[in-house]
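ok so i was messing around last nite and threw this chain in just to see what happens. nothing serious, just curious
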Amino acid sequence: LYTNFIVQDFRSFTSNNENLKLLKSNDLSLTVRYMDYLNSFQSQFGFSYQNKTNDFQNFNAINQNFIVNRNVILDFDNQVFNAFFSAHKYIGFLKSNVKFNTNFNVLKSSVFISNELIPFKNYQTNFSLDIATAFKNKLNFSNLTNFTTNEQVLSLANRKAFLKQINNEFKMVYLINNNSNFNITYNYFKPNFDRKEDYNFLNFYFEKKIYNEKINLSLTGHNLLNVKSFESSSIFSQGFSNFSYSLISRYLLLGVNFKLI
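result:
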């Protein structure tokens, strides 16, 4: 640990003025796994906990001649708790793999606002379900659904932010022959249940290999539903954010790859 100012470049300096012995962390975790290969089933569950009372806070002093960067240890009272469960099963009569995952996370910490440490808590839950067929014929399907909730509580004036999102991806894969395949993907995304906007995306991909697989031809279609813009939301330590993106209009892309040897 260095305590004097260190020159980083021609106008930047960095300094630490604390003792690393103050950075103590207590960790506890437990994971239980169960595997039944005979019945094509496996699962696991567990939890973890971390307590790290002190942590670094970065301060910058900027003027026209130089920048001073100072790292100071403060009592953030960081605590993280996580619990999870997952299961994977092959269902024979459906010729399908099913995967389920869930995760619950609690974060307790503080954020530095106006020269004051403000405690906050964050609660996040995630569920995902993935189903994929394994038919012996040429056509197969998969579907992945993700559902997430996120709640942020800032003790300052008891401010709260809540976000609920869902995303679903459906994919169809058709194996025409050993040298050709076609797949189409449909995505549905609702970034915030408190807003009316939701989004649908459709893409496809076709590939064909010719001349003993020395030449690879491909045709890709993106944003076939011609979505013009996309908005997403997120929660961070100090509040709520919305992001907006302009998207490229629908297009087709032809590709050619070849091997000389």
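not much to say yet. The radius of gyration is 26 Å.
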